[in-house]
């Protein structure tokens, strides 16, 4: 039976409410860590993971409650990773505001990220698929573990060690792919398309790498300055320069983005849930951010 379609903005409002309720739990008074979580959510964000869950969920006739639950799970885990990432990278600002660790201290930031991870499991309970909760929990745990593995790879990076573009892509895939793929994986699990989750995962991981390389092209000067202070982080353009591509590194990186995006379009073209149409908006956005004449 086809579910009623609700405006995306209305569902996003429900997602925000569920995230807040899951973070608060049964507390009548906010702890410093809970307050820090709510502060972080108020700083904004595009909620792209929530939008993926909603658009895909509507295309696959998922109930509104399940759409909201999948979206909230993905956003809570993503924002937990941002809080911890800012702490580990010692970044002072995010979205034009003080980062959680800068405003509340490192110890509170660590606890705030942990609360968000725990809250994601509480949010999952609002899905209308109780019989599939074990499988959904398995997907969540896998995504968290893979993203932590990618983060550890990122933190262990030293520019002056041998580091190839392949090494970089494995790191970017592990760090960004799992939590970007999770909302779609959860929707596919909840809607009875479990057999195609692996195909979804492979395609979205490629998109995540393309997205990260695009960010690196735009941030190369900033990352070079950070490297001078000892706070080096993997950047695709810098990795290519270190591997002998010199002034052509930007062009090589751009070409790699276009190749990955073409592969994503091919890989998702046969998947249900209008995934090709949904991702085409994001693909066009990345292409637009890179001038074709760089290639």
TrEMBL record:
Keywords: Magnesium, Metal-binding, Transferase. GO terms for molecular function: metal ion binding; prenyltransferase activity. One of its GO terms (biological process) is isoprenoid biosynthetic process. Its cofactor is Mg(2+). InterPro entries: Isoprenoid_synthase_dom_sf (IPR008949), Polyprenyl_synt (IPR000092), Polyprenyl_synt_CS (IPR033749). It comes from the Bacteria. Belongs to the FPP/GGPP synthase family. PANTHER family: ALL TRANS-POLYPRENYL-DIPHOSPHATE SYNTHASE PDSS1 (PTHR12001:SF69), GERANYLGERANYL PYROPHOSPHATE SYNTHASE (PTHR12001). This is Polyprenyl synthetase. It comes from Veronia nyctiphanis.
